[in-house]
Structure formats: C-alpha cells, structure tokens
Amino acid sequence: MQAIVATDRAAGVAGLSLADVAYPHAAENDVIVRVHAAGFTPGELDWPATWTDRAGRDRSPSVPGHEVSGVVAELGYGTTGLTLGQRVFGMTDWARNGSLAEYVAVEARNLAPLSADVDHTVAAALPISGLTAWQGLFAHARLVAGQTVVIHGAAGAVGCLAVQLAHEAGARVIGSGRTEHRDTILGLGAAEFLDLQQDRLEDVGQVDVVFDVIGGELLDRSAPLVRPGGALVSIAEPPRVRPADAQTIFFVVEPDRSGLAVLERRLREGRLRPILGATCLLAEVPTAFDPARRSHGKTVVVVAD
User: Fold this and answer.
1) Which of 129, 139, 221, 294 could join 135 via S-S bond, C-beta 3.0 to 4.6 A?
2) Are residues 11 and 122 in the same domain?
3) How far apart are CA 13 and CA 25, in angstroms?
4) Is residue 79, in this structure, part of any structural domain at all?
C-alpha cells in the first residue's frame, strides 16, 4: 500500500515522502481501517514516539498522522464492538504507524462508530482536537454552567471546539486570538474577544478557568487571572507560574470511545463544527503542510473516496 513516511527528523515536513510500505498487521483487539480521510499535525515530527517505539528503539521510517476516518476492512483476533464495513473514526496510537496511509491498524477501543451522514473529511478533523477540548474543559478544569473561561488560541483547531463546547455548557467564554480572528471567535459563541495584539490580558479580571494551547509568556501571565478554586489548564507545557489557591494542569489527550461518541453526536446534530481549511491528497502532504502554504483552519488529507 502507499503511505507518507518520515525519515529525517531534522527536515520537518520536507522530510516526508510518498512510498510503498507493508500492509499493516492486525494484532489482538485491533482493526484495520481503510482510510478515507486523515488528520496530521506537523508538530508530530518533534514527538519522540514518532521516531521510537515504547522500548526506545528506532522505528523510522514511520508513518505519521493520528486522526482517522474510514471503514473497517479487517478485524484482529478477539476484536469486538465493531464490524466489517462499518464507518468509524478516532485516534491511532502515538507509537505505531499512523493514518497518512491507505490502511492503518488501530486498537478497536480507540475508534467510535461514524454515522452515514457525517462526511469523512469533517470527522477526521475531530478526534484529537475535539477530545483535547472536551477533556481539558470538563475532565480536568471541571467547567460548569455559570462559570467564566478564557480560551487562548480560540480560532485554532482545539480552541474553536473548546469555545463551542464551553458555550453550550452554559459557561461565559472569553476567546483570545489575533485581530483578524475576532468575528470567527465571536461567531463560535464567545461572549467577549480578547485581542492578543492590542488588548491587555490583565484587564480581563478574575475567571474560573484558563484553557491554554499556546504556552510561554502568555501562559505565565494568565496565572493571576484564575480565582481561588479555579483551574489553569494547558496542553502546551506545564505551567511555571501557579495561581493562588487554584489548580495547574498540564495534560496530553487520551483516546476515549465514549468521548468520541459524544462529539460525533454533537457534530451530527449541528451543535459542533471544526474549522476546516484546505484538503489535500496523500501525495500532496509534503507540500500542503509547508508552513509557507498553510491556510487558516484544519488541513485534512483525503486518502480514498
């Protein structure tokens, strides 16, 4: 089969190429998914698991991509809960070959059924970003109706979904971003827009939750905003500055079939929508993810019709 392979860690996306690779093996409790659409984050090329297995052994050339939408093509021994020909979407394992391929092996528990009326291209944009937003807001920050949350990077892949989920939960959302993203962020349900290029972060006042996807100085300056009993949550790095009498949380998203099902239902009912950018074919991946060519929104790789 054909897949995108990464062979040179230092080269970034320029080191990606289309190649013929072996068809994946379905281990116990695996399924083989015929990939229809895939999500890819260029930052994966800096993750240790892209280049080494869990024992620390080199596994390059590796196939990146950890978001997938497709159809079950094969069931591994002992696999239950899914059937041949079923439409599914979800996350692939960090330390195994991923979804930028015609077929991928995935643990069945990391996939959820996908309704016939949800396009594979849309579904492939949801697993990592959607679960990250859901887990950050509700599993870690324990956001509830009536609270106020600041969401940094609110027009990004994670941030745009976090704004919608927080708004639907009854929270008051302050979304931060660049000037040109104001209308997008307010249109997603944010009550206020914080212009990171013009507004003073300190003027926001105290809030119950800060959900950060950017890190660095912005994360440091956000700590004093969190009122006692609140939470400062980041997916970028562990917070260095601790708010007084509040939680600080750094986390990496975890696969969750029930969480995927919750997100899929909202997507199907029109209550949640990722911001999609360009689509590209498998062979176009090295060019499409060149930083000089990237457009706003999630770029999705279309692998099969």
Assistant:
1) 139
2) yes
3) 26
4) yes
Is 260 inside any structural domain? yes
Q: How many whole angstroms separate alpha carbon 6 and alpha carbon 18?
A: 9
- The domain total for the chain is 2
- Residue 267 near residue 126 (C-beta atoms within 8 A): yes
Phi, psi at residue 31, to the nearest 5°? -130, 155
* 136 part of a folded domain: no
Exposure letters 227-259 (e unless 16+ CB within 10 A, then b): beebbbbbbeeebeeebeebbbbbeebebbbeb
Same domain membership, residue 239 and residue 263: no
- State both tokens at 167: 């708004």
In a domain, 165, yes or no: yes
pLDDT digits (tens, 9 = 90+) for 241-282: 999 899 999 999 999 999 999 999 999 999 999 999 999 999
Residues 56-85: tens digit of each pLDDT: 899 999 999 999 999 999 999 999 999 999
